Amino acid sequence: MKGKEWYQADDVAEEYDSKRFSRGGRLIDDREKRAVVEAIGPVEGKDVLEIACGTGRFTAMLAERGANIVGLDISNAMLAQGRAKARRAGVADHIEFLRGDAARLPFPDDHFDAVFAMRFFHLAETPAKFMAEMARVSKHLVFFDTFNRRSTRVVYNWLLPMGSHLYSASQVERLLDDAGLRLVNGEHDFLLPYGFYRKIPNGIAREFRDIDTSLGETAIGDALASVSYWTATVGDGKT
Questions:
Q1: Is residue 37's pLDDT more than 50?
Q2: 96: nearest Cα among 110, 109, 112
Q3: What pTM, to 2 d.p., does this model score?
Q4: Which residues of 20-53 are buried (b: 16+ CB within 10 A; e: fewer)?
Q5: pLDDT digits 0-9 by tens, 143-202
Q6: How confident is the model at residue 29 (pLDDT cuts 50, 70, 90)?
Q7: Is the residue at 161 inside a domain?
Q8: At 214, which CATH number?
Q9: Per the database entry, which stretches of residues form a coiled coil (predicted)?
Q10: Is residue 24 part of a domain?
Q11: Domain count across the chain
């Protein structure tokens, strides 16, 4: 089972957080949340859209920080998990969850202050369409991550059930340019792939993470990082 079919399965949604963000996966969760917060900045009173919101890890976090947030996903099972998480966090009244297609977003132009997508583009069948839609509905900021072609992810990718798409930096730059977006910042991380961290206890994972981070700060880090976080702004004069 690959792609959309795998992602929308009920059992995948039910086990998604526990399989990916327990044990050493907590380090991944922390890093991804920090990346989102740093990219978007203060969100109180801002209108924010999350594409492929999944189980609502980021929607709930940003709602707690005062955002007016919409979480869109193609999977009803994932959305159910997101709604439950929002209720537990006490922010259900501040999030609107919608089922929809990221290639045809049901919003007018310039509708959101920021639009972001995490863990999305590796499954994207038509990345140019998705990027164009994110740019269309954003007044200013677009943020997303990619799994990288020149990394240990290449080996790990063979084992994945969904057939992840890996990107080079030049591919990302072309996607941004074609969508009328201007790259502001790119951060590169995790020389060791996510799957490695998920397999080991958190305490041991922290030791490897310290080594990983140290190597990531060298010249080899950017070249071989398995994950990149990209921040872009709309480049046609919108503010």
A1: yes
A2: 112
A3: 0.89
A4: bbebbbbbbeebbeebbeebbeebeebbbbbbbb
A5: 999 998 877 666 566 555 556 788 999 999 999 999 999 999 999 999 988 888 988 999
A6: very high
A7: yes
A8: 3.40.50.150
A9: none
A10: yes
A11: 1
- pLDDT class for 22, splitting at 50, 70, 90? confident
SS3 of the chain: the string is: CCHHHHHHCHHHHHHHHHHHCCCCHHHHHHHHHHHHHHHHCCCCCCEEEEECCCCCHHHHHHHHCCCEEEEEECCHHHHHHHHHHHHHHCCHHHEEEEECCCCCCCCCCCCEEEEEECCCCCCCCCHHHHHHHHHHHEEEEEEEEEEECCCCHHHHHCCCCCCCCCECHHHHHHHHHHCCEEEEEEEEECCCCHHHHHCCCHHHHHHHHHHHHHHHCCHHHHHHCCEEEEEEEECCCCC
Whether residue 89 contacts residue 26, with contact meaning beta carbons closer than 8 Å, is answered with no
Ramachandran bin of 165, using left for φ above 0, alpha for ψ from -120 to 50, beta for the remaining angles: beta
Residue 195: inside a domain = yes
Mean per-residue pLDDT for 91-95? Answer: 93
Residue type, 144: F
Domain enclosing residue 74, as ranges: 3-234
